[in-house]
Amino acid sequence: MRILGPLVSFVALIAAVPLQTSQTSDAYVRTWLRDAMGFSAGDVRDVIEGRAVARQLKLAGPEEVSIFGAVRIAVAPGAFIDQLRDIAAFERRLGVLQVGKFHEPPRLEDLDELTIDRDDLLAIESCRPADCEVQLPEAMIKRFAGEVRWKEPDAAAQANRLFRQMLFDRLLRYRAGGLWAIDPYNDGAVPMPAAEEFQRLQVTKDLLPALPALVPYVTGFPAPAPPGVEDFYYWNKGEFGMKPTTRVNHVSVSSIAEAGARPDGIRYAVTTTQIYSTHYFSATFELRTVVDDAAKPGQGFYLFYASRSRINGLTGFLGTLIRPIVKSRARSGMERYLANTKAAVEAAALKKAPGLPAR
Fold first, then answer.
1. How far apart are the C-alpha atoms of 291 and 44, rounded to whole Å?
2. How far is CA 177 from CA 16, 103, 195, 276, 339, in A?
3. d(CA 304, CA 293)
4. Is the distance from CB of 284 to CB of 309 less than 8 angstroms?
5. Do 59 and 66 contact (CB within 8 A), yes or no?
6. Residue 18 lies in a domain
7. In whole angstroms, what is the distance from residue 129 CA to residue 31 CA?
8. Is residue 254 one of the residues assigned to a domain?
9. Which residue from 6, 88, 135, 319 could staple onto 314, CB 3.0 to 4.6 Å apart?
10. pLDDT tens-digit readout, 124-144
């Protein structure tokens, strides 16, 4: 098993500040946001008062976009995780265009509701290896060219069936062998293996004293899952940049068994590994950390959300022009996402238990 060593650095983000056993989770939150993430006193106050705040993280290269955000949510941590498990309903409340969760084991029909965007259909029709506006492996580019009868009235239906089959096969290969088992994108001048792109996702903090069991699993998948970890897979199509983007993701939810005794208050860690994306993202890794609100235990939590991606087109002369725009939009997008998540999660919890007072 080849290990994605540098990715450990990113997983370690949540444990950058050494913990003192005398700290409460509230003190941990304040200290960590200020000292590790560079939040100002005003930023920390905003987070504690329930407003979403996001900041750019230090980058390892110009192709990276890395954002960290935080918000306080007035819902029990377990209730949030329950909503997240129902990922299709959860993301629909956030306005995602299309979304579906795979059964266990996955079924091809889990992708039945996914459709290729019209502009992507036109792009795929003209795709050639090393020259395609959609991220596709070379074998799939050739299959679209050779198997879809583009002049026939049902060409779109043919292309959609082949696209769904491609995503399904890619998911099965990933589940069997991890990122090293899936074909590289070959839409540009240089093929991009997913595993190598993930190796380039790194930060400067390299320790994980808080959640060490996650490291070999996340970086060595399909290594055996440690106790307290559950996995699910889903696909979605959402608005990223200038065009809708379809992604397939692997989510791991880690329940921290000893949470009640932890001074940092960490209850759950949720990792998301990208398996496929039609546009922009050659690799993406996301980490959500759920930390108890010591002021209202069991009634609220802090959501820390770190997202690191490698994005095509951010190098060279043109890249230097658009890079600040991409990073600015990523930061504002993170704040909108966190604010929308807070609103959706609290509204769903209130709907389920309407007798509860607002907090």
1. 15
2. 30, 19, 11, 15, 36
3. 12
4. yes
5. yes
6. yes
7. 50
8. yes
9. 319
10. 999 999 999 999 999 999 999
Count of domains forming the chain: 1
Phi, psi for residue 121 in degrees, rounded to 5: -60, -45
Q: Would you say 135 and 187 are in contact if contact means Cβ atoms under 8 Å apart?
A: yes
Burial label, 324 (beta-carbon count in 10 A; 0-12, 13-18, 19+): exposed
According to DSSP H, which parts of 148-254 are helical? Answer: 155-177, 194-199, 214-220
Q: Answer for the pair 77, 292: CB distance below 8 angstroms, yes or no.
A: yes
Q: How far apart are CA 26 and CA 276, in angstroms?
A: 37
- Looking at the chain, the number of H-run helices and the number of E-run strands are 11, 8
Query: For residue 53, which of 66, 35, 40 has the smallest C-alpha distance?
Result: 40
Would you say residue 201 lies in a domain? no
For residue 218, the number of C-alpha atoms closer than 13 Å in the C-beta half-sphere is 31
Residue 86: both structure tokens together: 């129902």
Kindly report the CA angle at 310 between 308 and 312, in degrees rounded to 5? 150
Give residue 264's domain range.
7-114+208-352
The CATH number given to whatever domain includes residue 274 is 3.30.530.20
What is the helix (H) or strand (E) element at residue 276, kind and residue range?
A: strand 266-277
Please indicate, yes or no, if residue 14 is contained in any of the structural domains: yes
Picking from 62, 131, 68, the residue whose alpha carbon sits closest to that of residue 310 is: 62
Structure tokens at 125: 């029709």
Helices 77-85 and 316-352: angle between axes, nearest 10 degrees? 110
Query: Do 49 and 191 meet the contact criterion of CB atoms below 8 Å apart?
Result: no
